[in-house]
Design brief:
Low-confidence stretches: none
Largest sheet: 4 strands, mixed
Oligomer: single chain
Structural class: alpha+beta
Order of helices and strands: EHHEEEH
CATH architecture: 2-Layer Sandwich
Shape: globular
Number of strands: 4
Number of helices: 3
Helix content: 40-55%
Number of domains: 1
Radius of gyration: 13 Å
């Protein structure tokens, strides 16, 4: 059993990330998803590692960067709930308003 769960939106985020990168390089897409998954396990073990984003309304949300992506998760859940995995270039407050 995993120490974390993905919301349906986070699952879709990972599919979209893989498809986008795989257009140019399937091996790179696999590596990025592997790194994201490794970090999700680390965050599940130590959820306090993430940082608070002052621009997000829900103070229970934490973020952690992996390459140019942000893993956004809810700190107070067991197992750890991964809410989104998105590009750091996106309008993150807009996605959560």
């Amino acid at each position: 059993m995993k120490d974390f769960v993905l919301t349906p939106r986070a699952e879709l985020d990972l599919i979209e990330i893989w498809e986008y990168i795989a257009q140019d390089n399937v091996d790179a897409a696999d590596r990025v998803l592997d790194e994201l998954e490794k970090m999700m396990y680390k965050l599940a073990a130590m959820p306090g590692m993430g940082h608070v984003r002052e621009d997000l309304v829900d103070r229970r949300h934490r973020c952690w960067p992996v390459y140019s992506y942000l893993i956004i998760y809810r700190l107070d859940t067991a197992p750890l709930q991964i809410i989104r995995v998105i590009s750091g270039c996106r309008d993150i407050p807009g996605l959560f308003s």
